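Quiz preparation item.
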Protein backbone atom coordinates (compact mmCIF):
# COMPACT_ATOMS: atom_id res chain seq x y z
CA UNK A 1 0.00 0.00 0.00
CA UNK A 2 1.49 3.32 -1.09
CA UNK A 3 1.81 6.31 1.25
CA UNK A 4 -0.88 9.01 0.98
CA UNK A 5 -0.15 11.92 -1.36
CA UNK A 6 0.16 14.88 1.02
CA UNK A 7 -0.03 17.37 -1.85
CA UNK A 8 -3.49 16.38 -3.04
CA UNK A 9 -5.04 15.23 0.24
CA UNK A 10 -8.24 17.23 0.91
CA UNK A 11 -9.24 15.39 4.08
CA UNK A 12 -9.72 17.47 7.23
CA UNK A 13 -6.99 16.91 9.79
CA UNK A 14 -8.28 14.99 12.79
CA UNK A 15 -7.90 16.34 16.32
CA UNK A 16 -5.15 14.55 18.16
CA UNK A 17 -3.17 14.61 21.37
CA UNK A 18 0.28 15.75 20.32
CA UNK A 19 3.57 14.45 21.68
CA UNK A 20 4.59 17.82 23.15
CA UNK A 21 3.54 19.04 26.59
CA UNK A 22 1.44 22.21 26.81
CA UNK A 23 4.36 23.91 28.58
CA UNK A 24 6.63 23.15 25.62
CA UNK A 25 4.10 24.60 23.19
CA UNK A 26 3.90 27.69 25.39
CA UNK A 27 7.69 28.07 25.23
CA UNK A 28 7.60 27.62 21.46
CA UNK A 29 5.04 30.44 21.19
CA UNK A 30 7.24 32.77 23.29
CA UNK A 31 10.47 32.08 21.49
CA UNK A 32 11.26 31.93 17.78
CA UNK A 33 13.46 30.06 15.34
CA UNK A 34 14.80 31.17 11.99
CA UNK A 35 12.70 30.27 8.95
CA UNK A 36 14.92 27.82 7.10
CA UNK A 37 14.27 29.62 3.81
CA UNK A 38 15.88 32.68 5.48
CA UNK A 39 19.23 30.91 5.46
CA UNK A 40 19.71 32.63 2.11
CA UNK A 41 20.41 35.91 3.94
CA UNK A 42 24.09 36.38 4.70
CA UNK A 43 22.99 38.47 7.68
CA UNK A 44 19.75 37.42 9.38
CA UNK A 45 17.20 40.23 9.76
CA UNK A 46 16.55 40.78 13.51
CA UNK A 47 12.93 39.59 13.26
CA UNK A 48 14.08 36.30 11.73
CA UNK A 49 17.04 35.66 14.03
CA UNK A 50 16.46 32.86 16.52
CA UNK A 51 15.38 33.90 19.99
CA UNK A 52 15.47 32.16 23.36
CA UNK A 53 14.73 34.17 26.49
CA UNK A 54 14.53 32.32 29.79
CA UNK A 55 12.40 34.88 31.63
CA UNK A 56 10.39 38.01 30.77
CA UNK A 57 11.87 40.58 28.40
CA UNK A 58 12.67 43.59 30.63
CA UNK A 59 10.95 46.83 29.65
CA UNK A 60 13.67 49.45 29.25
CA UNK A 61 12.49 52.93 28.13
CA UNK A 62 15.12 54.84 26.10
CA UNK A 63 15.58 57.38 28.93
CA UNK A 64 15.59 54.78 31.69
CA UNK A 65 18.98 55.70 33.13
CA UNK A 66 20.34 52.19 32.57
CA UNK A 67 23.72 51.42 34.09
CA UNK A 68 26.16 48.54 34.04
CA UNK A 69 27.87 48.03 37.40
CA UNK A 70 31.42 46.66 37.45
CA UNK A 71 32.58 45.29 40.80
CA UNK A 72 34.55 42.55 42.54
CA UNK A 73 38.28 42.05 42.06
CA UNK A 74 38.86 45.40 40.35
CA UNK A 75 40.85 48.49 41.26
CA UNK A 76 37.81 50.77 40.95
CA UNK A 77 34.10 49.95 41.15
CA UNK A 78 32.33 51.53 38.17
CA UNK A 79 28.77 52.24 37.07
CA UNK A 80 28.63 53.02 33.35
CA UNK A 81 25.77 54.35 31.25
CA UNK A 82 25.23 52.99 27.72
CA UNK A 83 26.55 56.31 26.36
CA UNK A 84 29.76 55.86 28.36
CA UNK A 85 30.14 52.31 27.05
CA UNK A 86 29.64 53.56 23.48
CA UNK A 87 32.57 55.97 23.90
CA UNK A 88 34.97 53.06 24.33
CA UNK A 89 36.78 51.57 21.28
CA UNK A 90 34.23 50.12 18.87
CA UNK A 91 34.26 46.87 16.94
CA UNK A 92 31.79 45.10 14.63
CA UNK A 93 31.83 41.33 14.20
CA UNK A 94 29.68 39.05 12.06
CA UNK A 95 28.73 36.22 14.38
CA UNK A 96 26.62 33.09 14.03
CA UNK A 97 24.81 32.22 17.26
CA UNK A 98 23.09 28.89 17.86
CA UNK A 99 21.09 27.75 20.88
CA UNK A 100 22.72 24.87 22.74
CA UNK A 101 19.33 23.10 22.71
CA UNK A 102 18.92 23.27 18.93
CA UNK A 103 17.71 19.86 17.74
CA UNK A 104 16.37 18.80 21.15
CA UNK A 105 12.94 17.87 19.73
CA UNK A 106 14.51 15.27 17.42
CA UNK A 107 15.94 13.25 20.33
CA UNK A 108 14.15 10.24 21.82
CA UNK A 109 13.52 10.43 24.69
CA UNK A 110 13.88 14.19 24.97
CA UNK A 111 14.23 16.58 27.87
CA UNK A 112 11.07 18.71 28.34
CA UNK A 113 12.16 22.23 27.43
CA UNK A 114 12.10 24.51 24.38
CA UNK A 115 11.29 21.97 21.61
CA UNK A 116 13.71 23.11 18.92
CA UNK A 117 13.87 21.18 15.65
CA UNK A 118 16.65 22.81 13.56
CA UNK A 119 15.81 26.51 13.58
CA UNK A 120 17.66 27.93 16.61
CA UNK A 121 20.39 29.76 14.71
CA UNK A 122 21.06 33.14 13.14
CA UNK A 123 23.86 35.43 12.02
CA UNK A 124 24.12 39.15 12.73
CA UNK A 125 26.58 42.01 12.62
CA UNK A 126 27.11 42.94 16.27
CA UNK A 127 28.62 46.30 17.16
CA UNK A 128 30.03 47.03 20.58
CA UNK A 129 33.18 47.39 22.58
CA UNK A 130 35.37 44.46 23.61
CA UNK A 131 34.62 43.54 27.23
CA UNK A 132 38.32 43.90 27.99
CA UNK A 133 38.07 47.70 27.60
CA UNK A 134 35.47 47.89 30.37
CA UNK A 135 37.56 45.59 32.56
CA UNK A 136 40.63 47.66 31.80
CA UNK A 137 38.87 50.85 32.79
CA UNK A 138 37.93 49.27 36.12
CA UNK A 139 41.42 47.86 36.59
CA UNK A 140 41.09 44.07 36.61
CA UNK A 141 42.85 42.54 39.61
CA UNK A 142 45.57 39.93 39.18
CA UNK A 143 43.59 37.55 41.40
CA UNK A 144 40.46 37.57 39.20
CA UNK A 145 39.94 34.13 37.62
CA UNK A 146 36.43 34.49 36.16
CA UNK A 147 34.22 37.31 34.94
CA UNK A 148 30.49 36.92 35.70
CA UNK A 149 28.02 38.77 33.48
CA UNK A 150 24.50 39.17 34.87
CA UNK A 151 21.36 40.23 33.01
CA UNK A 152 18.30 42.11 34.25
CA UNK A 153 15.94 39.23 33.43
CA UNK A 154 14.86 37.40 36.57
CA UNK A 155 12.74 34.36 37.31
CA UNK A 156 12.62 30.77 38.55
CA UNK A 157 14.17 27.66 37.06
CA UNK A 158 13.68 24.33 38.83
CA UNK A 159 12.70 26.14 42.01
CA UNK A 160 15.67 28.49 42.04
CA UNK A 161 15.06 32.27 41.77
CA UNK A 162 17.86 34.16 40.03
CA UNK A 163 18.88 36.70 37.44
CA UNK A 164 20.15 35.06 34.28
CA UNK A 165 23.94 35.05 34.41
CA UNK A 166 26.97 33.30 33.02
CA UNK A 167 30.72 33.59 33.46
CA UNK A 168 33.82 33.42 31.31
CA UNK A 169 37.36 32.55 32.31
CA UNK A 170 39.72 35.50 32.63
CA UNK A 171 41.42 34.48 29.38
CA UNK A 172 38.18 34.24 27.42
CA UNK A 173 36.81 37.49 28.84
CA UNK A 174 39.94 39.40 27.78
CA UNK A 175 39.67 38.24 24.16
CA UNK A 176 39.22 41.10 21.70
CA UNK A 177 36.28 39.15 20.20
CA UNK A 178 33.99 39.17 23.26
CA UNK A 179 31.77 42.23 22.87
CA UNK A 180 29.49 44.30 25.04
CA UNK A 181 27.17 45.12 22.14
CA UNK A 182 24.70 47.96 21.61
CA UNK A 183 23.79 47.42 17.96
CA UNK A 184 22.54 44.57 15.80
CA UNK A 185 22.88 44.89 12.02
CA UNK A 186 23.66 48.58 12.38
CA UNK A 187 20.61 49.42 14.48
CA UNK A 188 20.05 49.69 18.26
CA UNK A 189 19.40 46.31 19.85
CA UNK A 190 15.71 45.31 19.68
CA UNK A 191 14.13 44.77 23.12
CA UNK A 192 14.01 41.00 22.69
CA UNK A 193 17.71 40.89 21.77
CA UNK A 194 18.96 42.68 24.87
CA UNK A 195 18.44 46.46 24.58
CA UNK A 196 20.31 48.51 25.61
CA UNK A 197 23.43 46.33 26.13
CA UNK A 198 24.23 42.65 25.82
CA UNK A 199 27.19 40.32 25.72
CA UNK A 200 28.17 38.57 22.47
CA UNK A 201 30.58 35.64 22.82
CA UNK A 202 31.57 34.45 19.31
CA UNK A 203 32.08 30.74 18.75
CA UNK A 204 30.09 29.74 21.84
CA UNK A 205 26.53 28.51 22.04
CA UNK A 206 24.09 31.34 22.66
CA UNK A 207 23.70 30.81 26.41
CA UNK A 208 27.02 32.65 26.97
CA UNK A 209 25.77 35.86 25.30
CA UNK A 210 23.93 37.39 28.26
CA UNK A 211 21.22 39.93 27.34
CA UNK A 212 20.17 43.12 29.20
CA UNK A 213 23.62 43.28 30.74
CA UNK A 214 23.40 45.02 34.12
CA UNK A 215 26.30 43.74 36.24
CA UNK A 216 29.86 42.59 35.57
CA UNK A 217 31.72 41.04 38.50
CA UNK A 218 35.36 40.00 38.58
CA UNK A 219 35.61 36.88 40.73
CA UNK A 220 38.49 35.34 42.65
CA UNK A 221 36.83 31.91 42.45
CA UNK A 222 34.58 30.11 39.95
CA UNK A 223 31.11 31.56 39.44
CA UNK A 224 28.32 29.53 41.07
CA UNK A 225 25.27 31.02 39.34
CA UNK A 226 22.42 28.63 38.54
CA UNK A 227 22.80 28.80 34.75
CA UNK A 228 26.51 28.03 35.11
CA UNK A 229 26.53 25.10 37.54
CA UNK A 230 23.03 23.60 37.24
CA UNK A 231 22.24 24.11 33.56
CA UNK A 232 23.97 23.90 30.18
CA UNK A 233 25.82 20.72 31.08
CA UNK A 234 26.33 17.67 28.88
CA UNK A 235 25.20 14.50 30.63
CA UNK A 236 24.93 11.00 29.20
CA UNK A 237 22.47 10.14 32.00
CA UNK A 238 20.27 12.62 33.92
CA UNK A 239 22.23 12.61 37.19
CA UNK A 240 25.56 11.41 35.84
CA UNK A 241 28.91 13.15 35.38
CA UNK A 242 28.62 16.56 33.71
CA UNK A 243 30.72 18.47 31.18
CA UNK A 244 30.05 22.20 30.61
CA UNK A 245 28.52 23.26 27.29
CA UNK A 246 30.88 25.76 25.63
CA UNK A 247 31.72 26.06 21.93
CA UNK A 248 29.34 25.22 19.10
CA UNK A 249 29.73 21.90 17.37
CA UNK A 250 30.12 21.77 13.59
CA UNK A 251 26.77 21.86 11.81
CA UNK A 252 25.02 22.57 8.52
CA UNK A 253 21.48 23.25 7.38
CA UNK A 254 19.78 23.23 3.99
CA UNK A 255 17.12 25.55 2.61
CA UNK A 256 14.22 23.15 1.92
CA UNK A 257 13.86 22.98 -1.87
CA UNK A 258 10.61 23.31 -3.79
CA UNK A 259 7.32 24.25 -2.17
CA UNK A 260 5.78 22.99 1.10
CA UNK A 261 2.64 21.35 2.32
CA UNK A 262 1.24 23.76 4.93
CA UNK A 263 0.77 21.29 7.77
CA UNK A 264 3.53 18.68 7.33
CA UNK A 265 6.11 20.94 5.60
CA UNK A 266 6.74 18.08 3.17
CA UNK A 267 8.40 19.35 -0.01
CA UNK A 268 7.29 19.13 -3.64
CA UNK A 269 10.03 19.69 -6.23
CA UNK A 270 9.79 20.08 -10.01
CA UNK A 271 11.95 17.62 -12.02
CA UNK A 272 15.20 18.90 -13.49
CA UNK A 273 18.15 20.97 -12.31
CA UNK A 274 17.45 22.09 -8.72
CA UNK A 275 19.68 24.47 -6.81
CA UNK A 276 20.35 23.27 -3.26
CA UNK A 277 21.74 25.88 -0.86
CA UNK A 278 22.54 26.06 2.81
CA UNK A 279 24.87 27.26 5.55
CA UNK A 280 27.53 25.59 7.67
CA UNK A 281 29.30 26.76 10.83
CA UNK A 282 31.41 25.60 13.73
CA UNK A 283 32.62 26.95 17.07
CA UNK A 284 35.80 28.44 18.54
CA UNK A 285 36.65 30.11 15.22
CA UNK A 286 37.11 26.79 13.36
CA UNK A 287 36.62 27.26 9.62
CA UNK A 288 34.32 25.12 7.49
CA UNK A 289 36.52 22.87 5.37
CA UNK A 290 33.93 20.79 3.50
CA UNK A 291 30.19 20.29 3.07
CA UNK A 292 28.73 17.13 1.56
CA UNK A 293 25.24 16.51 0.22
CA UNK A 294 23.55 13.11 0.12
CA UNK A 295 20.83 12.23 -2.37
CA UNK A 296 19.38 8.88 -1.38
CA UNK A 297 22.53 8.13 0.71
CA UNK A 298 24.94 8.89 -2.18
CA UNK A 299 27.29 11.64 -0.92
CA UNK A 300 28.86 14.33 -3.07
CA UNK A 301 30.83 17.46 -2.21
CA UNK A 302 29.23 20.89 -2.41
CA UNK A 303 30.80 24.14 -3.56
CA UNK A 304 31.63 26.59 -0.76
CA UNK A 305 30.99 30.33 -0.83
CA UNK A 306 33.78 32.64 0.33
CA UNK A 307 34.05 32.83 4.14
CA UNK A 308 32.38 35.77 5.93
CA UNK A 309 34.72 35.87 8.91
CA UNK A 310 36.08 33.71 11.69
CA UNK A 311 32.75 33.42 13.51
CA UNK A 312 30.12 33.51 10.75
CA UNK A 313 28.45 30.70 8.86
CA UNK A 314 29.57 29.82 5.33
CA UNK A 315 27.29 29.29 2.36
CA UNK A 316 27.38 26.14 0.26
CA UNK A 317 25.57 25.12 -2.92
CA UNK A 318 25.12 22.27 -5.36
CA UNK A 319 22.94 21.58 -8.41
CA UNK A 320 20.85 18.43 -8.19
CA UNK A 321 19.25 16.89 -11.29
CA UNK A 322 15.99 15.97 -9.58
CA UNK A 323 14.42 12.84 -11.06
CA UNK A 324 10.72 11.99 -10.46
CA UNK A 325 10.04 9.99 -7.32
CA UNK A 326 10.61 10.14 -3.57
CA UNK A 327 14.08 11.17 -2.41
CA UNK A 328 15.99 11.57 0.87
CA UNK A 329 18.28 14.59 1.12
CA UNK A 330 20.90 15.25 3.80
CA UNK A 331 23.85 17.56 4.39
CA UNK A 332 26.89 17.37 6.63
CA UNK A 333 29.82 19.67 7.32
CA UNK A 334 33.43 19.12 8.37
CA UNK A 335 35.48 21.85 10.03
CA UNK A 336 39.19 22.68 9.96
CA UNK A 337 39.73 20.63 13.12
CA UNK A 338 38.53 17.51 11.30
CA UNK A 339 35.22 17.34 13.19
CA UNK A 340 32.32 16.02 11.06
CA UNK A 341 28.62 15.95 11.83
CA UNK A 342 27.40 12.52 12.94
CA UNK A 343 24.74 10.72 10.93
CA UNK A 344 22.76 9.94 14.09
CA UNK A 345 22.14 12.21 17.10
CA UNK A 346 24.29 11.88 20.19
CA UNK A 347 21.71 11.64 22.94
CA UNK A 348 22.12 14.07 25.83
CA UNK A 349 20.04 14.19 29.01
CA UNK A 350 19.33 17.92 28.57
CA UNK A 351 19.05 17.83 24.79
CA UNK A 352 22.20 19.88 24.24
CA UNK A 353 24.63 19.95 21.34
CA UNK A 354 22.68 17.85 18.82
CA UNK A 355 24.56 18.39 15.56
CA UNK A 356 23.37 15.32 13.65
CA UNK A 357 22.80 15.77 9.93
CA UNK A 358 19.59 17.39 8.73
CA UNK A 359 17.41 15.10 6.63
CA UNK A 360 14.67 16.11 4.20
CA UNK A 361 12.13 13.93 2.40
CA UNK A 362 11.06 15.38 -0.95
CA UNK A 363 8.72 14.33 -3.69
CA UNK A 364 9.69 15.17 -7.27
CA UNK A 365 6.95 15.27 -9.87
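Solution:
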Amino acid sequence: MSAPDLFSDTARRANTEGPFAAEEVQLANRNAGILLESLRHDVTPPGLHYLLNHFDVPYVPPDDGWRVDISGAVRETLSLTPDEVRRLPERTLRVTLECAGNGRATLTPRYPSMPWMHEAVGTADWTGTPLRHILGQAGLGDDAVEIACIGADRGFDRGHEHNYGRSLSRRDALSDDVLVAWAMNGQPLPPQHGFPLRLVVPGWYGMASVKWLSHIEALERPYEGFQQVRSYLYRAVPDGPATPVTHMRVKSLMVPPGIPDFYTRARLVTPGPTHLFGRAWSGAGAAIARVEIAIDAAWREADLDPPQGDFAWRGWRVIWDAAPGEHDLACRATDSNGETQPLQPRWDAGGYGNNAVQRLRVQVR
